[in-house]
């Protein structure tokens, strides 16, 4: 393998990263070869490691970096997810622990959000049922008074329980999400430190 | 060197070398390699990360008809380096106490 072949293989391995990342990496290593001198070309290739290994390092670092940045738009978060997925498929073994933790984190966040939403939804349904009962109760007032009172009472109870639980669930979800994010941030932080250690082992 | 080198310490080494003078990838790698056993490809992801964190900047200079990218430490980088040096001294002190105390 010579310099040109090495760089083209590296660029192929990196092809799914943003094009700017690929350009930067290729120009860095191209310069590196030039500075080492043509007579050291083979030694440099030996010392760099295979294009595959180098690509994995770069992709992992990219993934960690984009995990740390707080995505502000949907586009940002999509690109983060994309790079992370890429890192998993590119380097399932060289994968830093932090990425696995991060994926776990994403799953947990997703679960919490779904849980909160469904709880909220069910309490809202409770309120809706209560209101419908009240409406039916009012209509029944002209037909069957005892039954109407029963329905009205039931409606009031349902509505009040619904409103109360909606409020409680709302507070609970907020707290849950806050707690989860704090916990996960800690997890990712620790995971990063560990992964750094594990990366060093392979050097 | 038989001891493990964590990433913050490697960051610190890169910043320390750059705090003396601006230099380019090859020289930087050789300087650090003379002390720590790293592969020649180790520094690129680190440099890229430090650059994105704003601890380094780059500028290009022509050299023999091609481009050479120099890395320079920024003020934030210097602050970070001071912090690392302080932490390192702390750590060194305590490990010495354990080993030799």
Would you identify the regions of chain B where 5 or more consecutive residues have pLDDT less than 50? none
Our Rg estimate of chain B from Cα atoms comes to 15 Å
Instruction: Summarize the amount of helix of chain B as a percent range.
Output: 55-70%
Total number of beta strands of chain A: 0
Order of helices and strands of chain A: HHHHHHH
Structural class of chain A: mainly alpha
Mean pLDDT of chain A: 76
**Between the first and last Cα atoms of chain A, what is the distance in angstroms?**
22 Å
Helices, strands, pairings?
The complex is a heterodimer of chains A (203) and B (101).
Chain A: H1 3-13, H2 19-36, H3 41-48, H4 51-68, H5 74-90, H6 97-140, H7 145-201
Helix pairs in contact in A: 1-2, 1-4, 4-5, 6-7
Chain B: H1 7-20, E1 23-24, H2 25-33, H3 43-52, E2 56-63, E3 66-73, H4 75-100
Antiparallel strand pairs in B: 1-3, 2-3
Description:
- The complex is a heterodimer of chains A (203) and B (101).
- Chain A contains seven helices and no strands.
- With 203 residues, chain A is mainly α.
- The longest helix of chain A is centred in the C-terminal third of the chain and has 57 residues, at 145-201.
- Chain A is rod-shaped.
- Chain B has 101 residues and is α+β, with helices and mostly antiparallel strands.
- Helix content of chain B is 58%, strand content 18%.
- In chain B, a hairpin with a 2-residue loop joins strand 2 (56-63) and strand 3 (66-73).
- The longest helix of chain B is centred in the last third of the chain and has 26 residues, at 75-100.
- The radius of gyration of chain B is 15 Å and the shape is elongated.
- The mean pLDDT of chain B is 89.
- Chains A and B meet through helix 2, helix 3, helix 4 and helix 7 of A and helix 2, helix 3 and strand 3 of B.
